[in-house]
Design a protein that fits this description.
single chain, 371 residues, alpha/beta, 4-stranded mixed β-sheet, 44% helix, disordered N terminus
């Protein structure tokens, strides 16, 4: 039975990752050795390559019903820390920095349109207006972004992770038979944060604050998730793709148990029902930790200086209205300016009636330090 459930999840994961993986492979396959030598050039080419199909990738994410496709905004300096931990609980992660920083020009977007009231007779070509505008990508650190894209290549190629740029576009210029207007400069760009992308109950919070127990938040499980520490991001990405079979099996098992949580949360004796699920997850985690520990002591990983580490994790259930409302009221949650849980509590306190409907599940990964 468990094997069938696990296979079903693996098949679903493969389908949802395929679109991202195809685009990411196209990008990396197009990089020449000379282009890889310039990390700034890698970052610029990524933005230029992704721009034409960026909206399609975002729509595919929004349409996905998997609770394990998460979107997360993080400071560029935390990208490595975030990447090493979020892949433990997510099938696919859309990672973006906050959109605060300089606009790095990528190119010019061009098109044509017919002016209003121009009719349909005569020479249509002579009345077409050709317009263009500069566009760019917003980030504080183009060098750090390019290096992350190279180091995390195996993760992006396999569809586990991808980077969502923040694009900016300048004023349109136009050329017609009556004259021209020059293409406008790119705007300055600052103070724009991308919040957690919360669709179908997906969210990940990296914080120093544990979830609050309240009428809208139910902490379910607190565990230490194992991961291989001491590796560079590039080595970690390679190991994650090729050698984390034991953890992948545990993760699939855990997800089959998460399907049972909805009934447990609404049960008459919900605390007992939740504890049964939590115990089965902890038992399976012990086996997975032993397997990963053996892998960390293997020859290849030992030569890389790998050791077994852990990250404290709390799985919490949140009423949808409270979670989405809290995110909507704070544009800087992802930057850690206010914190997810105090914001949820403040929003819930303003609501006079109890919310209903399915629960959202949020993983809280403890952030002790950035490295």
């Amino acid at each position: 039975m468990f094997r069938r459930v696990r296979q079903a999840w693996q098949n679903r994961r493969a389908l949802q990752n395929r679109g991202v993986a195809v685009r990411m492979n196209e990008f990396y396959d197009s990089l020449s050795e000379q282009e890889r030598a310039s990390v700034q050039g890698v970052a610029r080419k990524y933005g230029h390559t992704v721009k034409p199909y960026y909206e399609r990738l975002l729509r595919a994410k929004d349409a996905s019903t998997s609770p394990y496709y998460v979107g997360l905004s993080s400071d560029m300096g935390s990208f490595t820390y975030v990447t090493k931990r979020v892949v433990l609980v997510a099938d696919t992660m859309l990672l973006s920095d906050h959109g605060v920083g300089a606009v790095h020009e990528l190119g010019v977007i061009s098109g044509t349109h017919m002016p209003p009231g121009s009719g349909v007779s005569g020479d249509i070509g002579s009345r077409l207006i050709h317009h263009s505008s500069r566009y760019g990508m917003v980030t504080k650190d183009l060098v750090a972004l390019g290096q992350w894209l190279l180091d995390a290549e195996p993760l992006l190629r396999s569809g586990l992770v991808w980077y969502g740029p923040v694009f900016a576009q300048g004023r349109q210029g136009a050329v017609s038979v009556t004259g021209s207007r020059p293409v406008g400069p790119l705007p300055s760009f600052s103070d724009r944060s991308i919040d957690f992308v919360v669709e179908h109950g997906r969210a990940v919070d990296l914080s120093r604050t544990k979830p609050l127990a309240s009428r809208v938040v139910r902490p379910i499980l607190e565990i230490d998730l194992p991961f291989i520490n001491g590796l560079s991001l590039s080595d970690f990405a390679q190991v994650t793709r090729e050698e984390f079979d034991s953890y992948s099996q545990y993760r699939d098992f855990m997800r089959s148990r998460l399907l049972e949580l909805e009934d447990a949360l609404e049960a008459v004796d919900s605390q007992v029902a939740l504890e049964r699920v939590a115990l089965s997850i902890r038992d399976e985690l012990n086996s997975a930790t032993a397997e990963i520990s053996r892998a960390a002591r293997s020859g290849a990983l030992t030569r890389c200086g790998a050791v077994l580490g852990s990250t404290s994790a709390v799985l919490a259930a949140v009423r949808p209205e409270a979670l989405q409302g809290a995110l909507a009221t704070s544009a800087t949650i992802a930057a850690g300016a206010t914190g997810l849980w105090p914001t949820i509590q403040a929003f819930a306190d303003m609501k006079s009636k109890r919310t209903h409907g399915k629960w959202h599940y949020v993983w809280v990964l403890q952030k002790k330090a950035t490295r």
